[in-house]
Specification:
This protein is α/β, with parallel strands linked by helices. It folds into 3 domains: 180 residues, 3-Layer(aba) Sandwich (Rossmann fold), CATH 3.40.50.300; 83 residues, Helicase, Ruva Protein, domain 3 (Orthogonal Bundle), CATH 1.10.8.60; 102 residues, Orthogonal Bundle (Arc Repressor Mutant, subunit A), CATH 1.10.10.10. It is built from 16 helices and 8 strands. The strands form 2 sheets. Strands 2-3-4-1-5 form a 5-stranded parallel β-sheet, with helices on both faces. Strands 6-8-7 form a 3-stranded antiparallel β-sheet. The model has no long low-confidence stretch (mean pLDDT 89). It binds a DNA duplex through α5, α15, β7 and β8.
Length: 415
DNA sequence: TGTCCACTGGAAGGGAGGGCTT
DNA sequence: AAGCCCTCCCTTCCAGTGGACA
């Protein structure tokens, strides 16, 4: 046996007892803590499915990390189990979960649902190419091919509606009128309570038969959730009890977000492990908090489209020379200057305002519409990311790396 | 009180790219 | 190969606007 560079790392005791996926927010535990009321309520709404009747549509609201997705996936396990049970009269219940952040087009959603009912690979709806109308008819035909109840969950439904309008939802909420055998109910999940305002009133009333709100977790509840997971994931006595309370307290202060709390604990443990420390301590949590925030920004910035990178770089370069508040006009002028420097085709100011809004939505910059009276009405733009780290992340893109030591010429209007 | 600035943001549509059908 | 269809990225056009200033 030859020694390898991994040996010393393999030998050291691991902080993690098992698969570290347990600490990821996508892991669904056997029992979901502090969501009994919500689970029971959804169960009571969905139970007609097990008698072959159509359940009411449900809209679920709640901030990120309040357990909406976990609950929806948990319901999938439970209802499938119940449908297979011999006590149940009606067995053909199909539960389909779609994350509209990933599948975010009308076509994609209809295709995803449709393909769940098509066993033969050659018969499947292709990822692109068909008219949407055709996808819809295929879906309807396949779903309705025998008596069954379909429960379709559209997670992040607000993004979907925002992006594609409400056509697909209109069709899906209306589909039951055209069925002879099947029945379908929709569960929409959103963290934006206002998104229903975008909907046609007919869809709004159909979709929102039942409405539920998932409240944020408080510190004690977060602590319970962390304790449940850490018992499964970590070796005994590795995690200081104060660490759990600290993670819970930090996140309860922010949003009551279980996802972030779990991430925080996991990254703390990873830092401890990498440091070859035997225990996870509060110090690791503080370090992890900083690391997570920075990693998030770097990743978001790294995957930005080129045009957005140039815009953001322009904002940061202005900030570097003390221009902290910029208008859309300033940003566009800098953007044009940088484009000329690297020979990049420029887009119009209209397009740039959209890209600025996107950066704002992502939390990378903050752009507020402000009126300067005679000075006009425009956006006031300030970056909200650490300057040096973000800039060096941007400059890693080979297309713009030459801008690293470029000095801006353009004079700002705001002082 | 009305004017006017510098945009904002909606609407419509073009065209490239990817993929299917005939 | 020609004809469709959908999505994505973008342009063009333009009515609308908050508030400082004359």
């Amino acid at each position: 046996m030859t020694a390898t560079i991994f040996d010393k790392h393999l030998k050291k005791p691991s902080i993690f007892k098992r698969d570290r996926d347990i600490m990821s927010s996508s892991y669904i535990p056997e029992k979901l803590l502090h969501r009994d009321d919500q689970i029971n309520q959804i169960a009571s709404i969905l139970v007609p499915a097990l008698r072959g009747e159509r359940p009411s549509n449900i809209l679920i609201f709640g901030k990120t990390g309040t357990g909406k997705t976990a609950t929806a996936k948990y319901m999938s396990k439970e209802i499938t189990k119940a449908a297979q049970s011999t006590l149940t009269k009606f067995n053909d219940v199909v539960y389909i979960y779609i994350n509209c952040e990933i599948v975010d087009t009308q076509y994609g959603v209809l295709q995803n649902i449709g393909n769940r009912f098509i066993k033969d690979f050659d018969e499947r709806i292709p990822p692109t190419g068909w008219a949407t109308e055709r996808v819809y008819y295929k879906l309807k035909e396949e779903m309705d091919s025998k008596p069954r109840v379909c429960i379709v969950v559209l997670d992040e439904i607000d993004r979907f509606v925002h992006k594609t309008g409400d056509d697909a939802l209109y069709r899906l909420t209306k589909i039951n009128d055209e069925f002879e055998n099947a029945k379908m109910c929709l569960i929409g999940i959103s963290n934006n309570m206002k998104f229903t305002e975008l909907l046609d009133p007919r869809i709004r009333s159909r979709l929102g038969d039942e409405k539920m709100v998932f409240p944020p977790y408080d510190a004690d509840q977060l602590r319970d959730i962390l304790a449940q997971r850490s018992e499964l994931a970590f070796a005994e006595n590795v995690v200081d009890p104060n660490v759990l309370s600290l993670c819970a307290a930090v996140e309860a202060n922010e949003q009551g977000d279980a996802r972030s709390a779990l991430d925080l604990l996991r990254v703390s443990a990873e830092l401890a492990e990498r440091n070859r420390d035997e225990k996870v301590t509060e110090q690791h949590v503080y370090k992890a908090k900083n690391k997570i925030e920075l990693d998030c920004v770097i990743e978001a910035v790294r995957t930005l489209p080129l045009q957005s990178k140039v815009i953001l770089l322009g904002i940061l370069m202005n900030e570097e020379i003390g221009q902290l508040k910029l208008t859309t006009g300033d940003v566009y002028a800098t953007y044009k200057e940088l484009c000329r420097k690297i020979g990049l085709a420029m887009v119009t100011q209209r397009r740039v305002t959209d890209l600025i809004s996107e950066l704002d939505m992502m939390g990378i910059i903050s752009a507020r519409v402000k009126s300067f009276g005679r000075g006009g009405r425009t956006k006031e733009i300030v970056s909200s990311v650490p300057l040096l780290e973000t800039k060096s992340a941007l400059l890693r893109d080979p297309m713009i790396e030459t801008l690293g030591d470029y000095k801006l010429k353009h004079q700002m209007t705001l002082m």
